[in-house]
Write a structure and sequence with these properties.
By secondary structure, the protein is an alpha+beta fold. It has one domain: 2-Layer Sandwich (HIT family, subunit A), CATH 3.30.428.10. The protein is 30% helix and 16% strand. The chain is built from three helices and five strands; from the N terminus they run H-E-E-E-H-E-E-H. Strands 1-2-3-5-4 form a five-stranded antiparallel beta sheet. Helix 2 packs across helix 3. The longest helix is centred in the middle third of the chain and has 22 residues. It is globular and about 40 Å long.
Length: 153
């Protein structure tokens, strides 16, 4: 399937939805897709992505907006059940070249996370050296555990 935005990573992934591995399609509906972050050292770092190309929150439709809140709460609950995290952080920037497509980071904050990584400092856990990244097999394991919780909830 082709995408009208070939330079957009999220649009390319959305166009390939059915062929994606579990880590790239944890859950989805007509408007949103959930994936594990592709470059993090924190297991369970999720990304909530609109299925259509949009580059600002103001560009979301009323339906997308209504679903957004439900997805954020559902994902936070599933992460708590699956990882035992103390809370989740939700953030949205969409500024990195190739990743301007709106996406929301849903980040599990574990009880034992070092205080110097609390709040926005958790973003230090993104883009680590390859050897420190969550292995794809672990991302897929987490994805399937989350998918089961989301289907039951």
């Amino acid at each position: 399937m082709t995408t009208p935005f070939p330079d957009c990573y999220s649009c390319r992934q959305n166009a390939s939805h059915d062929a994606l591995p579990p880590r790239e399609r944890i859950a989805s509906d007509a408007r949103w897709r959930v994936a594990h972050s592709i470059s993090t050292s924190l297991p369970g770092w999720l990304v909530l992505i609109p299925r259509r190309h949009v580059t600002s929150i103001a560009g979301l439709t009323e339906e997308e907006s209504a679903d957004l809140g439900r997805w954020q709460v559902r994902l936070s609950r599933a992460l708590h059940d699956a990882t035992g995290c103390a809370k989740t952080y939700v953030a949205q920037f969409a500024e990195k070249p190739g990743f301007e497509h709106v996406h929301f980071h849903v980040v599990p904050r574990m009880a034992d996370l070092a205080p110097e990584l609390h709040g926005p400092k958790a973003f230090a856990l993104l883009n680590p050296p390859e050897a420190e990244r969550v292995p794809t097999t672990e991302m897929d394991r987490i994805a399937l555990a989350l998918r089961e919780r989301l289907e039951c909830g």
